[in-house]
Amino acid sequence: MRVLNASVDPAMRGWLSAEKNYLTVPDGEVMKAHGVGEVIASECAAYNVGDVVFGWLGWQRFAAISEKDALWKVDLSLAPPEAWLSIFGLNGLTAWIGFTHLARPVAGETVLVTTAAGGVGGVVGQLAAAAGLTAIGLTGGADKVARAEATLGYSKAIDYRADGLDAALAEAVPKGVDIFFDNTAGALADAVFRHLNIRARVIQCGTASVSSWLPPPTGPRRERDMLVKRLAWQGFVAFDYTREFPQALADLQGLYRAGQLTAQDEVLEGLAHAPGAIARLYRGENTGRLTIRP
Amino acid sequence: MRVLNASVDPAMRGWLSAEKNYLTVPDGEVMKAHGVGEVIASECAAYNVGDVVFGWLGWQRFAAISEKDALWKVDLSLAPPEAWLSIFGLNGLTAWIGFTHLARPVAGETVLVTTAAGGVGGVVGQLAAAAGLTAIGLTGGADKVARAEATLGYSKAIDYRADGLDAALAEAVPKGVDIFFDNTAGALADAVFRHLNIRARVIQCGTASVSSWLPPPTGPRRERDMLVKRLAWQGFVAFDYTREFPQALADLQGLYRAGQLTAQDEVLEGLAHAPGAIARLYRGENTGRLTIRP
């Protein structure tokens, strides 16, 4: 495969760490990464030269992969390679699984999303708006606030770095929060928990605001909220729901064609950007879903 | 109604407190309590003099109640009044809703229960054993350990007050914990969380080890475990599941008739015991489900 685009994900930091994780990348191995590539030679009946494929290609210019790592074919006439790594890739699938499949959204409810302008959060906002929910976002910086409100489905986005987060949050969710789609954990999650409604669903999709969990940092205990508010808190990893992926992709592509889903992609040129790109994600400097054209 | 037995519940402390709760009892009102009573006068077509009824009777010798507070009729030929407040009352229903209905138990799994010898925990252990799971209990004191293992369905019970809790727990759950039925919160819950398996279900049924939640005490953050282990953590209050009660009661009575469910009731004589009875629960001195014969 000639790799057209390779993904940069916050989760990669965890894959490199010694901490227990669902996926690891030992020292000396190619970084695991989703990518979009063109088949340039094939010994596999399912894929022919010229096919464009989404799969586990890694951070490299050429990838020799087996059939199990080729996940599905990609139609570049619908959208460019980077879109197949963002709204039609793991970001879009993660947003759909967590929000549409697990959080059981109901029109009229309020969903609050952390890292609202990120690759996953940006899709959750648009899925929520399309489903008739009110989406409120937390994100860092005036540019991301503006982008979240202008193009990502959010009725209101709040800059968590500004003063008065609690007051801004209280004003933004007068009826409370029915679904909390959390990508950050930590103090931001604590602020949102105070606004959860009875029977709210909490979807744990990431923990980006906490850099080390060895040992876990402390925070306010949740047990009482879990009980009194009858909360349902679900952690998930999209890979566990491959059975749902065809439905997810069909939904996402339908919304894209209908103009209800836009991509926000930022493409870096050259693999030399790769290590710095992860750091960039954690500093919040990216302006869209980061991929590398190797 | 002449009240035959009235319930004493740990939750009553919360109902009396100023903290936000699902149910409150303001100063000067009769303590809300489930009870079993005999109808001595009736202006209601559904209940006749002589019927024995389970319902919201309160801590009092005679109760004048409306039809909505009379929950269902009771058959004293199957079991004595106190059993209708324990295994066929809120304890049994709570155990059934949390374990059988919400935790989706699978034969061969391991369930860990805190306050294993309590009114709810004692039923969970027996439901788990009847369903082919391995039940491991945490409880306080050698007497309760012995009772949990002898009559309440537990393969192994651990005295959480003894030294070496972590080692005892590790030895008791070599394959990890698939369902954590938690009645205590706090440090005991922290110890159990370290043993949760991937896709474990956590059922938050009570928070008895923490006496005040204003403000919430701190503990290790759960977000990372929620994500990496794909946990599902569900708080619940049995009252929310009244639609399931007929099925729950039918199951519990079937197990009782089959000899797979025993009651463990401790009946106090006289309402004068009432306030001290709640304190007694929190000190762990009760030897079974506490009720008062007013």
Protein topology:
The structure is a homodimer of 294-residue chains.
Chain A (H helix, E strand, L loop, with lengths): L1 E6 L3 H6 L17 E5 L13 E5 L13 E4 L16 H13 L7 E5 L6 H10 L3 E6 L2 H10 L4 E4 L5 H8 L4 E6 L3 H8 L2 E9 L13 E3 L2 H6 L3 E4 L9 H13 L7 E5 L4 H10 L5 E5 L1
Parallel strand pairs in A: 5-6, 5-8, 6-7, 8-9, 9-11, 12-13
Antiparallel strand pairs in A: 1-2, 1-13, 2-3, 3-4
Helix pairs in contact in A: 2-3, 2-8
Tell me what the structure shows.
Chain A is of the alpha/beta class. Chain A has two domains: 2-86 and 264-293, Medium-chain alcohol dehydrogenases, catalytic domain (Quinone Oxidoreductase, Chain A, domain 1, Alpha-Beta Complex); 90-238, NAD(P)-binding Rossmann-like Domain (Rossmann fold, 3-Layer(aba) Sandwich). Helices cover 29% and strands 23% of the residues of chain A. Chain A is built from nine helices and 13 strands. Chain A has helices at 11-16, 90-102, 121-130, 142-151, 165-172, 186-193, 223-228, 245-257, 274-283; strands spanning 2-7, 34-38, 52-56, 70-73, 110-114, 134-139, 156-159, 177-182, 196-204, 218-220, 232-235, 265-269, 289-293. In chain A, the strands form two sheets. In chain A, strands 4-3-2-1-13-12 form a six-stranded mixed sheet, covered by helices on one side. A six-stranded parallel sheet of chain A has the order 7-6-5-8-9-11, with helices on both faces. In chain A, β8 (177-182), α6 and β9 (196-204) form a beta-alpha-beta unit. The longest helix of chain A has 13 residues, at 90-102. Chain A is globular and about 60 Å long. The two termini of chain A are 12 Å apart. The mean pLDDT of chain A is 94. At the A-B interface, β10, α7 and β11 of A face β10, α7 and β11 of B. β11 of chain A pairs antiparallel with β11 (232-235) of chain B.
